[in-house]
Design goal:
The complex is a heterotrimer. By secondary structure, chain A is α/β, with parallel strands linked by helices. Helix content of chain A is 38%, strand content 27%. Chain A contains 11 helices and 10 strands. In chain A, the strands form 2 sheets. A 6-stranded mixed beta sheet of chain A has the order 6-7-8-3-9-10, sandwiched between helices. A 4-stranded antiparallel beta sheet of chain A has the order 2-1-4-5, with helices on one face. In chain A, α8 links the parallel β7 (169-173) and β8 (199-203). The two termini of chain A are 31 Å apart. Chain B folds into 2 domains: 2-42; 46-277, MetI-like fold (Orthogonal Bundle), CATH 1.10.3720.10. Chain B contains 10 helices and no strands. Chain B is globular. Chain C starts with a helix and ends with a helix. Chain C is mainly alpha-helical. The chains are: A alpha/beta, B mainly alpha, C mainly alpha. Bound molecules: adenosine-5'-triphosphate (ATP) and magnesium ion. Magnesium ion binds next to α1 of chain A.
């Protein structure tokens, strides 16, 4: 299974007094795409929000256990450092409304107070936008507000924004569920290209999408990890009854 | 039940409602009409750059009060905007029993009669300084403006979608940077309109200035000295027994109404131009 | 992070500053009225004599004047503000008239009180004087009635905007149910909307009352500034706010100034109670509507 970049050990998370995730143990392989699937409300978003410590922004949040990035416990690091190394893209595109396309891409640097020379900035912006398959569409409107782009373009802008920080892992929470089919396939192409150079963890409800883009699949049911393995295997011959029922229900 | 009777009653009631509503905005038109009719003849270029004349002489202007009002508004804004924005962010961001209490206190502050605020500024500034001053008037006006700024800031900060915050944190930004670089710029339009609403609330306030800024027949640029203001001038001249002074007061009222209308218009424009799309 | 801690501390400092400001406001008023408070105590608000020369101070005439002007103003304004609210909330859907009416009430709320006072002095006072001559009472022109009319005009936007908000919260389906039973609009208004919105409208009345209660300039200019106990609505009188506005800068004796500030303290307490009650009622109404 290649090298493991991220290890989740005996991890619990929840809200208020109830655990939503219980005893999760999962090892994410490097430079591969791991899909996280499961019925609505099973805790997929909660899990990936724990991976870059966004979960704890919720005042109700509770959590327990360990997550190791390259062997280091992320809950012993400063959250801002963790988040710089583990980027995230959300369900609904959320470019910063007061910033231009250009500023949105280097937002991570602006927000972290990192001063760059103009040439450096230009290069980061161009690289990130190219990686996000967006350069050709926006290179002439770099200084317009990011919110003027279409939904699919906005989502790719958000991906570029995350990539510009050169993260080790990219988390995607249903990145295409708010987009039309055409924009969706653009993003899928992009993701397939990206996973050659970066580890991706993606939550998706779309089984066909998982089959198309992912290398590994984790299946979560009622807050527990019930199945994890290479995607073809999980889909072709699920070991657990819950997985099978979910897949059948979805296909049928 | 006689249904024709019911329909007639229904229509009569509707007519009555329309009539009363029309009547209640009649004063607005009367006020504007009479102010324009009486004030327009007082207004000429001199009106804006000359000082008032003694009673008996016609002509003269209101330069002293224009300059004074301008200074008071600038000072009051400078006092209330920083602290108001900060408190607004605080109430929107932090939820505990202290901010709950604070919200009630802000409501109390907003409900305080302006004359009481005048007394407070007198006790806090005029008495220790030993005399009336522009700065004491500005303090009174700032206290009036403060709740407006706090409330609009709170509201707009709250309207900023949570996802922007998440996006900012996901890039590794600290809390401070997220507020200053993401939340505040996204709320800029709201805060600006709060400033405009606040300004139009204080520009016509008279009561808190009576025993703070006090009035001054000459142009004063020193914040430590008494100063005139547009509403103070209107009050003093309107209550005087002189015909010529009444005319000046009407002219000043017209200027004041135009300023308030202008601020209203500005508010609508700001609402359009600064709108941030989420 | 250190900057985050500092930033949070700054936020708390801002909040604490505002909280202290309100607390200090109350304490300063108490402190500055101490002289009068000690001498006259609570009887201050029950005594009807206000005589600066002989150093006798009682605020009853002003308290009565304040209550009379604001209550009469409320009574006058109520039919008008409810009409506006009904028009905007029930009769008129989108359209030009609705826009004009909304804008006009906004402006009515925005006109400075000094201008209301000035206009009242030169337009309403002669009108009231004519009325008084017809009725055969002393034709002062200025007095409680004139002040009440000016106040009524000023508070129409407040009551109507709250009444409108409250009316808009009446669930659409019960109104439709009423219509489908064949009720006329008038019957819906009296049978469904007004009973439903009752407590919310009451809150609006309280808040408008609070505003009329503390209004200073417009009242000062048309009430006639008499320190006697008002005997009828045509009498010149003074409200708590207007007597402060009139006498504050002329008060040379300490006890006089202290008594004026003592009135200010009562004004603070009264408006505080009224506003608190109004806010409570409207909060309760909002919760009730949500829970249904
Ligand atoms: N802010 C919150 N406060 C309390 N409970 C929450 C909160 N967010 C989510 N939950 C609960 O946690 C559980 C898991 O939510 P989560 O969003 O992780 O599910 P999900 O698998 O991502 O679902 P979906 O497929 O609908 O996105 C749900 O039962 C939900 O009710
Ligand atoms: Mg989810």
């Amino acid at each position: 299974m290649g090298d493991k970049i991220l290890k989740i050990e005996n991890f619990y998370a929840g809200y208020g007094h109830t655990w939503v995730l219980r005893n999760i143990n999962l090892e994410i392989p490097e430079k591969k795409l791991t899909a996280i699937m499961g019925p609505s409300g099973c805790g997929k978003s909660t899990l990936i929000r724990c991976i870059n410590r966004i979960h704890e922004l919720n005042p109700e949040a509770i959590y327990r256990g360990h997550i190791y990035l390259n062997g280091k416990d992320i809950y012993k690091m400063h959250p801002t450092i963790v988040r710089r190394k583990i980027g995230m893209v959300f369900q609904k595109p959320n470019p910063f409304p007061t910033m231009s396309v250009y500023e949105n891409v280097i937002a991570g640097y602006i927000l972290n107070g990192i001063k760059l020379k103009k040439e450096e900035k230009d290069k980061i912006v161009e690289d990130a936008l190219k990686k996000a398959f967006l350069w050709n569409e926006v290179k002439d409107v770099l200084h317009r507000k990011g919110t003027f782009l279409s939904g699919g373009q906005q989502q790719r802008l958000c991906i570029a924004r995350a990539l510009a920080m050169k993260p080790e892992i990219l988390l995607l929470d249903e990145p295409t569920s708010a987009l039309d089919p055409k924009a969706t396939s653009r993003i899928e192409e992009l993701i397939v290209e990206l996973k050659k150079t970066i580890t991706i963890v993606m939550v998706t409800h779309n089984i066909a999408q998982a089959v198309r883009v992912s290398d590994y699949t984790a299946f979560i049911y009622l807050g527990e990890l019930v199945e994890f393995g290479p995607t073809e295997k999980v889909f072709a011959a699920p070991e657990r009854k819950e997985t099978e029922e979910y897949l059948v229900g979805k296909f049928g | 039940m006689n249904s024709r009777n019911r329909v007639v009653k229904d229509n009569l009631f509707k007519l009555f409602v329309f009539l009363l509503a029309a009547l209640s905005i009649l004063p607005l038109f009367l006020i504007i009409f009479q102010t324009v009719r009486n004030g327009i003849s007082a207004i000429n270029p001199e009106f804006f750059y000359k000082l008032p004349k003694p009673p008996g002489e016609s002509g003269g202007g209101i330069l002293n009060s224009l300059v004074g009002s301008f200074m008071l508004v600038i000072l009051a804004t400078a006092f209330s905007v920083p602290i108001g924005t900060l408190t607004g962010i605080f109430i929107a961001e932090v939820r505990n029993s202290f901010t709950e209490l604070l919200r009630t206190l802000v409501n109390i502050l907003q409900g305080l009669p302006s004359i009481v605020i005048g007394i407070l500024a007198y006790l806090w500034v005029v008495k220790p300084m030993g005399g009336f001053s522009a700065i004491s008037g500005a303090v009174a006006l700032a206290v009036m403006m403060l709740p407006v700024i706090i409330k609009t800031t709170e509201e707009t900060v709250r309207l900023v979608p949570f996802t922007l915050r998440e996006a900012s944190f996901s890039l590794g930004a600290t809390y401070t940077k997220t507020i200053i670089k993401i939340i505040l710029p996204a709320s800029a339009r709201g805060i600006l309109s709060g400033i405009i609403v606040g300004t139009s609330r204080i520009i016509g306030e008279t009561a808190p200035l009576l025993f703070t800024a006090f009035g001054n027949p000459f142009v004063n640029l020193n914040p430590m000295k008494p100063t005139d203001a547009l509403p103070l001038l209107i009050f003093n001249y309107a209550m005087s027994p002189y015909e010529e002074w009444h005319k000046i007061a009407w002219g000043a009222s017209l200027v004041l109404i135009i300023v308030v209308l202008g601020l209203n218009l500005l508010l609508k424009m700001v609402g359009k131009r600064w709108e941030t799309k989420f | 992070m250190k900057t985050d801690r500092i930033f949070r501390a700054v936020l708390y400092a801002g909040g604490a500053f505002v909280a202290l400001l309100v607390l200090l406001a109350f304490l300063s008023l108490c402190h500055a009225s101490w002289l009068s408070l000690k001498k006259f105590g609570i009887k201050f608000i029950l005594s009807r004599e206000w005589d600066p020369v002989n150093e006798k101070f009682g605020a009853l005439p002003f308290i009565v004047g304040t209550f009379m002007t604001s209550i009469i103003a409320l009574i006058i304004s109520l039919p008008f503000s409810i009409s506006i609210a009904l028009l905007l909330g029930v009769y008129l859907r989108e359209g030009f008239i609705k826009k004009v009416l909304t804008y006009a009430t906004d402006l009515l709320a925005g006109i400075p009180s000094i201008i209301y006072g000035f206009w009242g002095l030169f337009f309403l006072v002669p009108l009231v004087r004519k009325l008084e001559m017809k009725l055969g009472v002393l034709p002062y022109g200025v007095g409680i009635l004139t002040a009440s009319i000016v106040l009524a005009i000023m508070i129409v936007p407040y009551t109507s905007s709250i009444a409108r908000e409250v009316i808009s919260m009446v669930p659409g389906d019960i109104i439709e149910a009423g219509f489908s039973l064949g009720a006329t609009t008038r019957e819906i208004i009296f049978g469904i909307i007004l009973p439903y919105a009752r407590s919310g409208i009451f809150a609006g009345i309280l808040l408008a009352f609070g505003r009329a209660f503390g209004e200073t300039m417009a009242v000062t200019m048309v009430i006639g500034n008499s320190n006697c106990m008002p005997k009828s609505i045509f009498c010149p009188a003074n409200t708590m706010a207007s007597v402060i506005a009139n006498e504050f800068t002329e008060a040379t004796k300490d006890i006089h100034l202290s008594s004026l500030i003592y009135i200010g303290l009562w004004l603070f307490l009264f408006t505080f109670a009224i506003n608190l009650l109004g806010n409570l009622v409207i909060k309760k109404f909002r919760v009730e509507v949500k829970n249904e």
